[in-house]
């Protein structure tokens, strides 16, 4: 309404309506106005409706007296402030709320869904709704804005931040009754009844803000303030026209109070964008989503971080995140918000506080959640009968995330939890118990998730510098698909990690253990796993060095050992080392040395009846001889290895089975038996798919690409080669990747696409140079120069 329109409407008011308006704005009741002007209440109400209409005010609820007064006060405060005489506390409250209403709350964004939910509850007849969330999510902002929009006027029962500062409900209720133009009674019960009657006749919003300081460890109202229960009983009366919103970090467990719960989630990334844009901050950066995710859309964090970026980083979001992503609580206001929650929990529920801090020991990274048993194992000093109650206490207080039976900590909460845990006497015990939980929770490792879950135990021992225990995690044996492993007690975790392609994790762990564990049979296993991993990624010199270290330590252990079972294990370790060194020599094209190693392996395995290693010697020697003039020897060894596959022997491990397919595929190709070569490679692909063996699959695809190229089926060859490159690049297998680029270069060369051929040859040369394989480099250069002969000399 413009100033001119207001003046026109005001000047046209009749004398009687001006009298009614003055008394109405002063806060007098309809009865008082009627009595002083000697008219009926109905006439008073009609005059008020007409006045509102003349000033262009439409009211959603025609009987909502305080909303009408609020709107009129706002209008006169703007254009004729001297006409507004505030005589009661309610006018002050109305003016404050209307002032807030007239200025849009820029912090109130992205809550359309929450408002829709609250509207649904209201339309379903809910009288009390508890809005629950962690600190800073925006519970109070939502509640105040919702009640303001819905009712225009609401009364508030604020609970103090600290328990000792809570105002008794008796005093608060007296003030609120007077605010509503009602006299409180001498007895609390009388005041409650008058409050009930008021809410039965007026549609008024009620807010009880920040309830949790008034709750005990069981989420019940504490004894000094039990009378709040009586207030809540009144507010849940279905005959009331009011709606009450309660904000709390904790749930309320009072059997006599019937209410609805609404769990408020963090703001969406779109809401954050809207807020940042309102402050002229750019959001088109990957760091923006990272920040939003790190703080779970927390509204308070949104305000604090936006302010910090504006003031301290000239509005540049990227450098802010680069500087602070390692410390989510760098901002003092955020740190205070979180520490307050921890301090309150420590005071009110020490058992839940201990569990929250101990939960900081979990990483929530590779395995993002923990089952309830992972929480129970951290309650070692509490009776088992209390375990579930303690967990539920954290859930009720929104301090632990929960979904589908799995638990985790928000990153910000976890940062504070682990900080407190490190300073407590529980640090070592919590990590040991967590490590044992992960170890016991996995009885087989067939898929990557199972491997990652078992590997979590390693990080806990690493955190407390117990490298011997960390080593035991890597060699811990579990049920295997392969009888060969089960004969040894199962497959160790290191082997599982390597087979599933988790090479970087394996290499990092093995390196850390080797630097801190000096001797023992378990350390031999670690050296072997590290050597095999280095071979897969193409670090051949490091692989050979680790195989040598494994052999030296193996011999030391044999001399010091008195356990016959350990002797068998150490014998197998020695032969594993021979296999590994031989494969490294093949990749380096040092075929004479490779031949010597595999002949030695064959002799040792036959002497000690190690069938698995005999087969590995057969297929390796078959391939070596197939690249020489000793074709009969190659055919003989190939047949021995091939025929062993028909025995369906349970004595082979997955390494031997997978690599037998690959080397027989290569051997039969060299011997001109293309059909059998195809068969071997296809069997390798099937085997690799069934066992999640990425390297074997990629090498088989490279072999198939070579065969299809020889048959002039270039498109098929190109397809297989490209798939192999993607897989090998993913696991970082440099030597195999170099070979794949070499084969692709040959395919392009055969297709007479010389530019593409040169590009892939150059990629192969670069990778072979990185792994220090000069003979391989020479092989590729010859192919570039003379048309692609790939026969090994």
> What would the principal axes of the Cα set say about the shape?
elongated
Assess the beta-strand content as a share of residues: under 5%
- What composes the largest sheet? 5 strands, parallel
Which parts are unreliable, with pLDDT below 50 for 5 consecutive residues or more? 60-66, 87-92, 98-103, 788-793
Number of strands: 10
Q: Round the Cα radius of gyration to an integer and report it.
A: 38 Å
- Residues in helices, as a percent range: 55-70%
Quaternary form: single chain
Number of helices: 39
Question: Would you tell me the overall average pLDDT?
Answer: 85
Task: Return the structural class.
Answer: mainly alpha
Query: Spatial order of the strands in the main sheet?
Result: 2-3-4-1-5
Straight-line N-to-C gap: 96 Å
What does this structure look like?
- Helix 11 links the parallel strand 3 and strand 4 (243-248).
- The longest helix is centred in the C-terminal third of the chain and has 24 residues, at 564-587.
- Strands 2-3-4-1-5 form a 5-stranded parallel beta sheet, with helices on both faces. Strands 6-8-7 form a 3-stranded antiparallel beta sheet.
- With 793 residues, it is mainly alpha-helical.
């Amino acid at each position: 309404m413009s100033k001119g329109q207001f003046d026109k409407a005001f000047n046209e008011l009749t004398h009687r309506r001006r009298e009614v308006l003055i008394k109405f704005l002063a806060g007098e009741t309809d009865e008082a106005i009627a009595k002083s002007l000697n008219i009926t209440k109905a006439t008073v109400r009609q005059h008020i409706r007409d006045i509102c209409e003349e000033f262009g005010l439409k009211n959603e609820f025609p009987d909502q007296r305080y909303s009408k007064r609020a709107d009129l006060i706002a209008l006169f405060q703007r254009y004729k402030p001297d006409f507004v005489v505030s005589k009661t506390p309610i006018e002050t409250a109305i003016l404050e709320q209307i002032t807030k209403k007239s200025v849009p709350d820029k912090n109130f964004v992205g809550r359309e869904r929450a408002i829709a939910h609250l509207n649904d509850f209201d339309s379903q007849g809910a009288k009390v709704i508890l809005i629950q969330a962690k600190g800073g999510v925006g519970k109070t902002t939502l509640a105040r804005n919702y009640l303001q929009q819905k009712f225009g006027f609401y009364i508030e029962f604020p609970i103090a931040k600290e328990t000792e500062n809570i105002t008794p409900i008796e005093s608060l209720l007296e003030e609120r009754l007077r605010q509503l133009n009602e006299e409180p009674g001498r007895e609390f019960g009388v005041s409650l009844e008058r409050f009930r009657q008021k809410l039965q006749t007026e549609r008024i919003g009620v807010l009880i803000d920040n309830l949790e300081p008034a709750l005990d460890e069981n989420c019940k109202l504490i004894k000094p303030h039990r009378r709040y229960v009586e207030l809540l009983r009144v507010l849940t009366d279905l005959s009331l026209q009011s709606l009450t919103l309660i904000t709390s970090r904790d749930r309320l467990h009072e059997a006599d109070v019937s209410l609805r719960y609404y769990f408020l989630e963090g703001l969406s990334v779109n809401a954050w964008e809207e807020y940042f844009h309102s402050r002229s901050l750019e959001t088109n950066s990957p760091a923006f989503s990272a920040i939003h995710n790190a703080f779970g859309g927390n509204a308070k964090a949104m305000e604090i971080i936006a302010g910090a970026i504006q003031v301290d980083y000239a509005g540049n979001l990227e450098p802010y995140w680069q500087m602070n992503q390692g410390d989510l609580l760098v901002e003092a206001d955020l740190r205070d918000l979180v520490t307050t929650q921890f301090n309150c929990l420590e005071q009110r529920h020490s058992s839940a506080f201990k569990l929250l801090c101990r939960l900081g020991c979990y990483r929530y990274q590779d395995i993002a959640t923990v089952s309830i048993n992972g929480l129970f194992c951290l309650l070692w000093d509490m009776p088992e009968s209390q375990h579930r109650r303690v967990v539920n206490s954290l859930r009720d207080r929104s301090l632990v995330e929960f979904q589908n039976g799995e638990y985790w900590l928000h990153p910000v909460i976890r940062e504070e939890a682990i900080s407190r845990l490190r300073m407590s006497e529980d640090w070592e015990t919590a990590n040991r118990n967590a490590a044992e939980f992960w170890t016991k929770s996995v009885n087989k490792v067939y898929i990557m998730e199972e491997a990652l879950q078992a590997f979590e135990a390693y990080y806990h021992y690493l955190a407390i510098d117990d490298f011997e225990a960390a080593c035991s995690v890597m060699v811990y044996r579990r049920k295997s698909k392969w009888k060969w492993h089960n004969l040894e007690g199962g497959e160790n975790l290191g082997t599982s990690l390597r087979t599933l392609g988790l090479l970087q994790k394996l290499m990092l762990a093995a390196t850390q253990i080797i630097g801190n564990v000096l001797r023992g049979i378990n350390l031999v296993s670690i050296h072997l796993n590290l050597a095999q991993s280095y071979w897969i990624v193409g670090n051949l010199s490091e692989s050979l060095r680790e195989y040598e270290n494994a052999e030296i330590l193996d011999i030391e252990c044999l001399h010091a050992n008195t356990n016959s079972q350990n002797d068998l294990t150490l014998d197998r370790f020695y032969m594993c080392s021979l296999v590994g060194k031989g494969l490294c020599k093949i990749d380096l094209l040092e075929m004479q040395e490779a031949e010597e190693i595999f002949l030695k392996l064959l002799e040792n395995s036959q002497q000690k009846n190690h069938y698995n290693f005999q087969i590995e010697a057969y297929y390796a020697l078959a391939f070596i001889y197939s690249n020489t003039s000793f074709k009969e020897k190659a055919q003989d060894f190939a047949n021995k290895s091939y025929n062993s596959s028909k025995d369906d022997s349970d004595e082979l491990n997955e390494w031997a089975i997978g690599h037998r397919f690959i080397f027989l595929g290569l051997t039969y190709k060299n011997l001109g038996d293309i059909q059998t070569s195809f068969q071997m490679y296809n069997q390798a692909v099937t085997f690799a798919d069934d066992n999640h063996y990425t390297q074997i699959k990629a090498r088989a695809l490279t072999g198939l690409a070579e065969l299809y190229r020889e048959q002039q089926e270039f498109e098929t060859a190109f397809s297989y080669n490209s798939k192999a490159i993607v897989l090998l690049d993913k696991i970082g297998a440099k030597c195999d990747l170099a070979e794949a680029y070499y084969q692709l270069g040959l395919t392009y060369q055969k297709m007479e696409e010389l530019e593409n051929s040169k590009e892939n040859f150059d990629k192969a040369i670069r990778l072979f140079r990185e792994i220090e394989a000069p003979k391989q480099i020479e092989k590729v250069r010859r192919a570039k120069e003379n048309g692609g002969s790939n026969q090994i000399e």
